[in-house]
Amino acid sequence: MIRQAPLAAAAIAAIIALLIGFAATASVEAVNFENARQESLYTDLLAELRCLVCANQSLSDSNADLAKDLRGKVRRMVADGRSREAIVDYMVERYGEFVLYRPRFSAATFFLWVAPFVLALAGFGFVAALARRKSQQVSPDPDTDARLQKARALIEDERHW
Amino acid sequence: MNRFIIPLLAFIVLVGFLGVGLTLKPRELPSPFIGKPAPAFSLPGLSPAQPAFNNRQMAGAVWLLNVWASWCVACRTEHPLLNQLAQTTTVPIVGLNYKDDAGDAAAWLRRFGNPYTHIPFDPRGNVGIEYGVYGVPETYLIDKNGIIRFKQIGPITPDILERELLPLIEKLRKEPA
């Protein structure tokens, strides 16, 4: 076991290096913004907007043509000084809530947001009810007290001898 | 017996949900555009000989906006239907040429026929983005007031044409401008 530790550490290091490598080679084109705030808004938005034609990739992950075009559109809107809300609204107006990885809280997405909490609560309730039933089952049987009493009486008797 | 019935019921419900899930088409997104005004645009024609197109010029008419490209294979299956529609009805079909090469597009029309009354040329796909196009072909039905009333993602099929598109065109034509 101890001898294998360096090997495992090396393997983990290799995996981490690979992951960093993948992240560094993401497909996003190099872009220049006037200021750092715009650049971070741009990268944030790309991570948050879904690519429409590739199942489950964000705009920043995808190499699809449409994703490139939409990246260009986001870049132009950011460079024009549009706010995050304005850009997100623009995308939702055209592609619907689907384009957002974090759908907004609305009547249509109500169950999407609330259901996990409701299910978790129901699960806790179920487990709690189960635990309570279990603890009630091992409760002492009624004549234990009587028997204890008898035992104590016997011990007392012994002492008197 | 009872302890098996609850998991069994849960399982049946789950299978029911999964069964319904199989029939849904996750790639066909509900268009948020239905009932909203068609975005304004103005583009040159496919060739210099053709007039520029501005969608304001269609005010007062019920018309179709068909997004197509010569590289789009599904457009080829849809095209005979558009040709037939152009011959049998008077509904104007505007063909937005999307992210295409002008020469390729013109050759494609010579080969497969041209059902379009106007062909706005959108080589960079900017108008496509305005219209939320994410798969070609897409077809929008726009009413006399410039409101999008129907959107077809992917090729129009004879069934959709007969059952949905034609009746809706008739209905919209009777609406006041």
What does it look like?
- The complex is a heterodimer of chains A (about 160) and B (about 180).
- By secondary structure, chain A is mostly helical.
- Chain A has helices at about 5-25, 35-50, 65-80, 85-95, 110-135, 145-160.
- In chain A, helix 2 runs antiparallel to helix 3 (about 65-80).
- Chain A is elongated, with a radius of gyration of 32 Å.
- Chain A starts with a helix and ends with a helix.
- The model of chain A is unreliable at about 20-25 (pLDDT under 50).
- By secondary structure, chain B is an alpha/beta fold.
- Chain B has helices spanning about 1-25, 75-90, 100-110, 125-130, 160-175, and strands spanning about 40-45, 55, 65-70, 95-100, 120, 140, 150-155.
- Chain B has a 5-stranded mixed beta sheet.
- The N and C termini of chain B lie far apart (about 65 Å).
- Give the structural class of chain A: mainly alpha
Span of the ends, CA to CA of chain A = 63 Å
**Biggest sheet of chain B, strands in spatial order?**
5-4-3-6-7
Average pLDDT figure of chain B: 91
Kindly name the structural category of chain B. Answer: alpha/beta
Can you give the helix content of chain B as a percent range? 40-55%
The CA-CA distance between the termini of chain B, in Å, is 67 Å
How many distinct beta strands of chain B?
A: 7
Shape descriptor of chain B:
elongated
Q: What ranges of chain A have pLDDT less than 50 throughout 5 or more consecutive residues? A: 22-27
Radius of gyration of chain B: 20 Å
* Oligomer category: heterodimer
SS element count, helices of chain A: 6
The H/E string of chain A reads: HHHHHH
Helix percent band of chain A = 55-70%
Mean residue pLDDT of chain A? 80
Strand content of chain A: under 5%
